[in-house]
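Render this sequence as a predicted structure.
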Amino acid sequence: NDGARAVSVTSACVDINDSALINNAMGGIVIVDSADAGCETTLNRTLIANTRTRDDGVSGRGLSIHSSAVRLVDSVVTDNHETGAWVSRGARLVMQGGTIRSTHPQPDGLYGYGLVARTGAVVELTGVDVRSSHGIGLALANATGVVVGGHFALNGIALDVREGTQLRAEGDAGTVLGTLFISPETQFIDNGARLGTGTLPLPDVEF
């Protein structure tokens, strides 16, 4: 697909099952303002791969979620550019199983982050493998996250929190606004660093 996105959903929800979205330009899936519809988009056993940057070298995100609720089950987000999955504007991503891997930087060398959550977003990862991100595996800025089990492996930096988000390793796995909870069983393997310093730039273009 040489257009801007393979799938674009606005103010609605869809179920995508046993599908592959490969070699698209700029964005694989974009889901916007579905919270107004009071529903959840579900992607089961879906492959989002090889999303390319535009001709000007911008974006290449696999999955972009804004003001929407999305559940990603046993799915693979791989070999995308800039960001594997982007969650913002109060959106919620629940990811159960599957992997986000091999996220590449833009041609200018920036980014290459597995999952980025910003501006009040919430992410919940259970048994997810985040690996081989050029930069950061999971970055939260003014966002909330829960990670139970799974692996962070071979990322430049496994985790990065900033803009008021605090890392939390004690208590239960429920969401506490403004914190990132990491369960004791989550494994960190051969990352360049486990926790970033909050100095690497984050993408700020939402589409």
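Summary. The longest strand covers residues 5-10. The chain is about 0% helix and 45% strand.
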